[in-house]
Design goal:
Blueprint: E1 2-10, H1 14-22, H2 24-30, E2 44-48, E3 55-64, E4 68-75, E5 85-94, E6 97-107, H3 114-134
Antiparallel strand pairs: 1-6, 2-3, 3-4, 4-5, 5-6
Length: about 140
């Protein structure tokens, strides 16, 4: 199995960063517009694809208040996504600096959409998250 891993330093408190990865309105701003998210273990959440061709459905597997969360992909138009796991871990470094450790794991192969997904997570979505937090927009 293969894994996408990114470590993103963010100039904000761990509390604020955790809120940005677990609040529906925040996720909808930095990831996919129109996201429906409930921060509850067992909840199956919907994230509409930006091209309108369907949705991603993720089940919340783990939620540790103020620290981390893990999702399991249960639906996506690209079969490579099914049964992959997305995890977010918030690591405080100081009162106003944190690190987000992001993993998208359990990929069966490193071909197909794997490289594109890695690029989108780093160059678009996680960058949006960091930039919006540092600009005070989340």
């Amino acid at each position: 199995m293969f894994e996408i891993f990114h470590e993103v330093p963010v100039k904000c408190s761990a509390r604020k960063l955790y809120g940005a990865i677990t609040a529906e309105n925040a996720i909808s701003n930095w990831w996919l517009k129109g996201s429906r998210y409930e921060a509850r273990v067992g909840a199956v959440n919907s994230f509409p694809l930006s091209d309108g061709s369907g949705q991603i459905r993720m089940k919340v597997l783990e939620l540790i208040e103020g620290k981390s969360q893990k999702w399991l992909c249960v639906e996506h138009k690209h079969i490579d996504w099914i049964n992959t796991e997305v995890s977010f871990e918030v690591v405080p470094e100081s009162a106003d600096t944190s690190v987000l450790r992001f993993k998208h794991s359990n990929w069966r192969e490193r071909s197909g959409v794997f490289g594109r997904v890695s690029f989108y997570w780093s160059a678009l979505y996680l960058r949006n998250l960091r930039d919006m937090l540092e600009a005070g927009k989340l």
